[in-house]
Amino acid sequence: MTLVSTTRGASSVDKADYIKQGDDWVREEKPCAGFLPKYEFKKQQGFDVDKIKVPWRFYETISQLGMVKEETIQEMLNLYKKKIGI
């Protein structure tokens, strides 16, 4: 573990969390360990991420960044699935 000084103070960084990509060090994406047991329970109860239906009015409401597209929501769901390791 390495101690890194930041503008908000020192924090610890585990070198094992980073991988070398070309000339850069990039934080390795690992599934969030706490989410998997929770998701397994939800799955037992009938929840399925792939069956999530966002109400159409959600796409008709203007956000601070403009209109939300259905593709954006699908990308967010895919990122969620990747983050929790499913």
Task: Give the count of structural domains.
Answer: 1
Shape, per Cα inertia axes: flat
Number of helices: 3
Radius of gyration, CA atoms, in whole angstroms: 18 Å
Q: In percent, how much strand structure appears in the residues?
A: 25-35%
Structural class: alpha+beta
* Strand neighbour order, sheet with most strands: 1-2
Order of helices and strands: EEEEHHEEH
Largest sheet: 2 strands, antiparallel
Helical fraction: 25-40%
Oligomer: single chain
Write up this protein.
With 86 residues, the chain is α+β, with helices and mostly antiparallel strands. It has one domain. It has 3 helices and 6 strands; from the N terminus they run E-E-E-E-H-H-E-E-H. The chain has helices at residues 35-44, 57-60, 70-84; strands at 2-6, 9-13, 18-21, 24-27, 62-63, 66-67. The strands form 3 sheets. A two-stranded antiparallel ribbon has the order 1-2. Strands 3-4 form a two-stranded antiparallel ribbon. It has a two-stranded antiparallel sheet with strand order 5-6. Strand 5 (62-63) and strand 6 (66-67) form a beta hairpin. The longest helix is centred in the C-terminal third of the chain and has 15 residues, at 70-84. The radius of gyration is 18 Å and the shape is flat. It starts with a strand and ends with a helix. The model is unreliable at 1-6 (pLDDT under 50).
Short description:
By secondary structure, the protein is of the alpha+beta class.
Question: What keyword list fits this structure?
Answer:
single chain, 86 residues, alpha+beta, two-stranded antiparallel sheet, two-stranded antiparallel ribbon, 3 helices, flat, disordered N terminus
